[in-house]
Amino acid sequence: MKNLQLGEPIVNSIINMSTNEAKTYLENAGFTMRVINEDGNAKAVSTDLMQKRVNVFVKNGKIFDIHNIS
Questions:
Q1: What CATH number did the domain enclosing 21 receive?
Q2: Which among 22, 30, 51, 61 could bridge 14 via Cys, Cβ 3.0 to 4.6 Å?
Q3: Domain range for residue 14?
Q4: Domains in the chain: how many in total?
């Protein structure tokens, strides 16, 4: 099941987009994007908080899940 973000249809619409497409789309909407897991491999991430940063999981070059917005 996808971790859809309640009240954030812009963010939810990135599911199945390529990473480049999703990054551009989110930046145009005022968000940033961070890949926290790619093809099952966790990425090193900091615990700092940034408003409107979308943490995503990527599989085969496409966004397949949204972890959260921090």
A1: 3.30.10.10
A2: 22
A3: 9-69
A4: 1
Residue 1 pLDDT > 50: no
Quickly list DSSP for 1-25.
---PPTT-HHHHTTTT-BHHHHHHH
Burial class from Cβ neighbours inside 10 Å (0-12, 13-18, 19+) for residue 8 reads middle
User: What average pLDDT does range 23-46 have in this prediction?
Assistant: 95
Query: Is residue 1, in this structure, part of any structural domain at all?
Result: no
Residues 6+ positions from 35 with CB-CB distance below 8 Å? 19, 43, 56, 57, 58
- pLDDT per position as a tens digit, 35-67: 999 999 999 998 888 889 999 999 999 999 998
